[in-house]
Amino acid sequence: MIWRGLWALALPFASSVMAEGLVLGSPVQCTLGEDCYIQQYMDRDPGEGHSDYHCKALSYDGHKGTDFALPTREAMDAGVNVVAAADGRVRGFRDGMDDTGYTPDTAAAIEGKECGNGVVLVHPDGWETQYCHLKKGSIAIRNDQQVKRGDVLGQIGQSGRAQFPHLHLSVRQGGKPVDPFDPDGFVTCNSPGDSTLWERPPLYQPGGLIDVGISDALPEYASVKAGSVAADTLPPTAPALVIYGFSFGTRKDDVLSLEITGPEGEVVKKSSVMDRPRAQGFRAVGKRLRRGSTWPEGTYQGTATLKRGDKIINSMTTQITIE
């Protein structure tokens, strides 16, 4: 799979006034915008609605942390480390919960253990960081252990109340939740993030593409999330060529365009308008093979582009070979 440059908008780091107290490094050993992304921020709306620190909708009601997500279960299985965001002491941890995520069938077993496998670190001046949904069997620390920033705590998983593989990072001072992206507590929509706990705060990414792939049939959503759909090669007799785009944080009226081109030019192209906001979702479009014919051999490129108004939020490409 080929990842293309518009995610570069999320790779530089913003300059911001550092809040006094805890200073955080990255809690994950992955690169935002390349092999992981922030799915949801802390909810800053005190009422029944939800709003992130940019006064946008990349959160949900009552969310008290930041979710660092992996694109697929396949990436989770490969292993991505969770590390201490600051020097501290291990106050407690849990391991042994399966990475089944939250479903009606698992709800009873998860009740009271929504964090799943996790670690709590304590820091000076009443600060705490909590790391949730770690992979079963990956916890790499012990109680009362002193850790340094960057020390491995475990790996990203899908244990507890998690609907996708991610690290949920909570930050608290004196037991009260603190948004590391705007810890002074004063959200200003016109100039968000005027304070920060991050040593190098990642720029805000207001939704985007998680994955793109080409297959020979319309994929199941569960398979898209697992990362088990996309092909590297297909035979000339493949029954269809289908491109899918897996997205997050889309808003009503966002436009997702999908296109496949091959040795003889355009194979299929279609744009879909989002009918409502979605935390995650996917769209697909394809073309069936004509009876008695074959696909021309060679390289085929798939492109997914997400637009919000006149602005391209994200674009990703992938390639397959027909031989």
From TrEMBL:
<dbReference type="InterPro" id="IPR050570">
    <property type="entry name" value="Cell_wall_metabolism_enzyme"/>
</dbReference>
<dbReference type="GO" id="GO:0004222">
    <property type="term" value="F:metalloendopeptidase activity"/>
</dbReference>
<feature type="signal peptide">
    <location>
        <begin position="1"/>
        <end position="19"/>
    </location>
</feature>
<feature type="domain" description="M23ase beta-sheet core">
    <location>
        <begin position="62"/>
        <end position="180"/>
    </location>
</feature>
<dbReference type="InterPro" id="IPR016047">
    <property type="entry name" value="M23ase_b-sheet_dom"/>
</dbReference>
<dbReference type="Pfam" id="PF01551">
    <property type="entry name" value="Peptidase_M23"/>
</dbReference>
<keyword id="KW-0732">Signal</keyword>
<protein>
    <recommendedName>
        <fullName>M23ase beta-sheet core domain-containing protein</fullName>
    </recommendedName>
</protein>
<dbReference type="InterPro" id="IPR011055">
    <property type="entry name" value="Dup_hybrid_motif"/>
</dbReference>
